[in-house]
UniProtKB/TrEMBL annotation, chains A, D:
This is Dihydroxyacetone kinase subunit L. GO terms for molecular function: glycerone kinase activity. Gene3D superfamilies: 1.25.40.340. The keyword ATP-binding does not apply. It comes from Virgisporangium ochraceum. SMART domains: Dak2. One of its GO terms (cellular component) is cytosol. The keyword Kinase applies.
TrEMBL record, chains B, C:
One of its GO terms (molecular function) is glycerone kinase activity. Its EC number is 2.7.1.121. Residues 7-330 form the DhaK domain. Pfam families: Dak1 (PF02733). The keyword Cytoplasm does not apply. One of its GO terms (cellular component) is cytosol. Homodimer. The dihydroxyacetone kinase complex is composed of a homodimer of DhaM, a homodimer of DhaK and the subunit DhaL. One of its GO terms (biological process) is glycerol catabolic process. It comes from the Bacteria. Pathway: Polyol metabolism; glycerol degradation. It catalyses: dihydroxyacetone + phosphoenolpyruvate = dihydroxyacetone phosphate + pyruvate. This is phosphoenolpyruvate--glycerone phosphotransferase.
Length: 207, 332, 332, 207
């Protein structure tokens, strides 16, 4: 795939929705350890609504699809992850003009998504949040972008997965897990884990 | 998991249907999932709304009514509501004098209310927000998302509601709400974890002889575990933790709430209240008003929270003002 | 066992100390272990008292106050009070117009109140007794100690209290109490057993997927076990059981209580109430008033009880009359 | 022992109090199965109060001692067992005139105790109550009374124990256990069990 178009965006979201559904219990269990046991339920509710919202939705390019995804997540998920993922998808979508984009352009859009997350949540890398998977993912994407969509997305997915895994060592400083102080160490962050799922879904879509 | 439910995903919607059937004074908008006074909006009166994840009943829906909230916005269980709901409630209670949002300090609540406030501003509605962060169990707010909003929410809703009833401006209603929050401290102890309908099992494992000290109201584990202790010692931990963070002096007056987290019998709450009253008397603090019961719960968690508000004449006057809601009622 | 207590044998005494601290409107006699309105006795007014084992709070102590009880007599946990206590309460509320005892139909309660009534008669105080036996789960009263007194006790205390407030005679107050009992039926379902402080472990073992149908409020097992069911089916079992024993026809009016047994969140009670309201609407019964919450509990038991009172104009008028107690309050 | 006097009465009550204390948990467990898990606690509270009440209490004969016991049980126990045992001891005490009595007289007094229980509680033999231990005990006492106190009391204790054991087969028709219907079968009645303890204490005292 050389261009990321509306169909690719739909395929990505469908793959992400399937991954979230399949891993919903796991995400909720992770959230149970250091949060309030709802992350999988939240995202699954959101992506189920997204799937319904995209059904029959007319879009002239990937941007419109992803803005719709973001808006739907914001109005269906709630909690911390709803506004964060919702704003991220809206920012990605807004950055994608035209019927299709190449790897560097999608990389820049994903970076806009990260910026939206950081602006809203004020989390820095190392705070044990979504940022700890998303930030290395966009870094890896940029480095690999010259190799095209498949290579960039694979690199990003691997980086997101590594980043998510590494959150286990961290002490949370943002979100609900932060209340645990040092007791949050040893548990992988649910939000970083769902971010890795979303990047893995993208890699599977554009491969 | 054993609960009186039909399906985990229908819990909030079906409970709202029950609220609608039980309280004809409230208008339940099942589509937007909000609870509104059926006589709202009031022209010229500030609209007061609050909301947050469900599972803390009677908070917030049980505090909708004269002298307290104009609307409540319940999210899914332990999940903050979404901006659309909050916006719908904001519009439903706007009588032209602006709307005050009472928001508990959790990342999700803060973000979703913030987004709704921006959307409301786009619609020309002035929104003031009061952030409640009274849980002194969260110590170093630079390393955390900050203190959580817990029991003081009940005090803020009551007192800001009374001032709104008197016709005060949105800025003044918000200001008194912030003043109540600033003057309040809370501390909670759990004996058991709660079980959310979606998770189907307790949020944390607590051995038969341990308690979770400084627990949150969403099943968030506390800051530490200790061995089970007599009620008297638990009351002392709570009182001392609060007074350390929000000092009070001899002669100060207080409004106090000994709150059950959902699975704790009233009998035990009264035992705790007896100890709290004795401890505050020792500190020279006069308890002018008190609540003992379930006001802000955590589903079926066996546990208690203590909230102490250092009160002055104005706060006491507003506390005593009439209130007519399913969860709190006096003076009318 | 995890509870906010100090020692099992001190639970009732210490909880009463907490009640005393929390409610200056009530006079708590710690020696006789009774809770009395601080303004009692009222010359010329019938004195209304009730009592029974502790562990059912807010019943009965939470219903002492204007328009309801003049005194409550709490026994040890799940143990009826002794005649001395009952006699002390009887004397404390006698204003010359006689005293009415509201007694739940349990062997121990009946015997102890009976003995106290005889002692009071020796002291020249006329005592009328109202026996509450509304629990339709107990079927064949020839083979049992008869139907148990449960949720209808709240209705009897409220309505008899209102009539006593109007200056009615002891005979009339007792008569309306009996009429309320006769017109009421209750049915309870437990999800878990409760743990008494003294026993230290649950009163019965209930597998993770079973419920106790027709359970008593003292941890007495019910008449049968069934598989866990959706809330809707449990509500139907309760409604059908009550209507089978106390039939109602289309056009009848009802006062309804969906009551939590102590460990069940309000969220679930509202889900149940929604189903109960729909079922009664299907039967053509109009719900004129309702309570949804914890009114007569069984310590920490997760469970619910439903009480339906077939009401007429007089009972509705007396229900609506002002009441000012810690557990029930309106109209003043 | 040929005469049952005030000291014997005190000794009986002390032995009964000790037996109740030692078996309190067992009685409560029995009550847990078919009642409300308080019978041991109730009786232990009552006999503890009885012990305190008799300390320094002046009595001119066994009758006064046992009336005091009954009155104390009534005002300290509550529940069903408080009035029943309290009335029984009061009736026994009232039937014992003078400084000491022989076996037939004590047997008649114990029968008065049974009458008090039956009058108050309206239970018949076979209803799975205290009566099912007390009734065979007084029957056995009468049969053996000619042999003196020790023989009568031993016979009564054995009969009470057998009666208590046999309650396991019965379906309760009185008291809290009656609510269980057929489900009460298979469990020994707590009240009958405590009655057996009380008769065993008497046998140990007069032997
Ligand atoms: N300020 C923040 N910035 C970025 N991510 C955050 C922030 N706060 C929380 N998160 C992420 O949100 C996840 C939790 O999401 P979720 O459970 O759906 O919401 P909630 O915490 O409101 O229950 C956390 O695991 C974390 O990765
Ligand atoms: N009507 C009755 N007559 C005789 N004994 C009874 C009667 N009702 C109950 N009992 C006895 O009382 C015992 C229970 O006593 P206890 O547990 O102390 O009181 P409660 O049932 O009030 O909790 C039962 O095991 C039974 O033997
Ligand atoms: Mg969460
Ligand atoms: Mg949440
Ligand atoms: Mg009992
Ligand atoms: Mg018992």
């Amino acid at each position: 795939m050389s261009q990321f178009d509306a169909d690719a965006a739909r395929a990505w979201v469908a793959a992400a929705a399937a991954a979230v559904k399949e891993n919903a219990d796991h995400l909720t269990q992770l959230d149970s350890a250091i949060g309030d046991a709802d992350h999988g339920v939240n995202l699954n509710r959101g992506f189920t609504a997204v799937t319904a919202a995209l059904d029959g939705f007319e879009a002239d390019g990937p941007g419109a699809v992803l803005v719709k995804v973001g808006t739907t997540l914001i109005s269906k998920v709630g909690g911390a992850s709803g506004p964060l993922y919702g704003s991220a998808f809206r920012a990605i979508g807004k950055a994608l003009a035209g019927p299709g984009v190449d790897a560097p352009t999608l990389g820049a859009a994903l970076r806009d998504g990260l910026a939206a997350i950081r602006k809203l949540g004020a989390a820095a890398p190392g705070d044990k949040t979504i940022v700890d998977a998303w930030d290395p993912a966009v870094e890896a994407w940029d480095t690999a972008a010259a190799g095209g969509l498949a290579a960039a997305a694979e690199a990003a997915a691997e980086a997101a997965e590594a980043g998510a895994k590494a959150t286990a060592e961290l002490q949370a400083r943002k979100g609900r897990a932060s209340y645990l102080g040092a007791r949050s160490v040893g548990h992988q962050d649910p939000g970083a884990t769902s971010t890795a799922l979303i990047f893995r879904a993208l890699a599977a879509t554009v491969s | 998991m054993k609960k009186f439910i039909n399906a985990p995903e229908d819990v909030v919607r079906e409970a709202l249907a029950g609220v609608a059937a039980a309280h004809p004074d409230l208008r339940v908008d099942l589509e937007n999932q909000i609870i509104v006074r059926s006589d709202a909006p009031f022209s010229g009166k500030v609209g007061l709304i609050s909301g947050g994840g469900s599972g803390h009943e009677p908070l917030h829906g049980g505090f909708v009514g004269r002298g307290m909230l104009d609307a409540a916005v319940p999210g899914e269980v332990f999940t903050s509501p979404v901006p659309d709901q909050i916006l719908a409630a904001t519009k439903a209670v706007d009588g032209g004098a602006g709307v005050v949002h009472i928001v508990k300090n959790y990342t999700g609540d803060v973000m979703n209310f913030q987004m709704a406030a921006e959307l409301a501003a786009d619609d020309g509605i002035t929104v003031e927000s009061v952030l409640v962060d009274d849980d002194v169990a969260v110590e170093d707010s630079t390393w955390t998302a900050g203190r959580r909003g817990t029991g003081a929410t009940v005090f803020v809703e009551k007192i800001a509601g009374a001032l709104a009833d008197e016709g005060a401006s949105a800025a003044d209603v918000a200001a008194v709400g912030r003043r109540v929050n600033e003057a309040s401290g809370s501390f909670a102890v759990a004996l058991t974890a709660c079980t959310t309908p979606a998770a189907g099992k307790p949020g944390f494992d607590l051995p038969e002889d341990e308690i979770e000290v400084g627990v949150g109201i969403h099943g968030e584990p506390g800051r530490r575990r200790e061995k089970l202790k007599p009620a008297k010692e638990i009351a002392a931990i709570a009182v001392e933790s609060i007074l350390a963070a929000k000092p009070m002096a001899g002669g100060d007056r207080a409004i106090v709430m000994v709150n059950g987290l959902g699975g704790t019998p009233l009998l035990e709450l009264y035992i705790l209240y007896g100890h709290v009253a004795a401890l505050l008397a020792d500190a020279g603090v006069e308890i002018v008003h008190k609540l003992v019961g379930n006001y802000i719960t955590s589903l079926d968690m066996a546990g208690m929270s203590l909230t102490i508000l250092k009160a002055d004449d104005e706060l006491i006057r507003l506390w005593e003002a009439p209130v007519v809601t399913p969860g709190l009622r006096w003076g009318a």
